[in-house]
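User: I'll paste a sequence; please echo it back and then give the predicted structure.

Assistant: Echoing your sequence first, then the prediction.
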Amino acid sequence: MQYKTMILELLKQRPQTHEQLRKERKLLPTMERYARELRQSHLAWKELLTPLRPGSDPGQIGSEALEMALKEIQDRLPSESPPDGGEGLFLDAAMIFTRHHTPRG
């Protein structure tokens, strides 16, 4: 899953924000900005975690780094009451990402 897709899913969890951005024609630029921030944060977390966990599987480190980066972004997004079960959607997105990007051994 790409960073933009993950950000779009996070924004969809906030229907009022999503709709406002769409109406104001700011959805795409906002999604792209947050996607860049997510990528930068993901890479920074990987860089930080790698020396702290020598010998660890790089895929596992990448997954942990992505979870941390997603949490950072989610905490910065405008707050709305998520729909039923909405809290787990960002974790679902992270799990899908890790399934597709973790090397199988």
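The chain has a mean pLDDT of 83. Residues 27-52 form the longest helix (26 residues).
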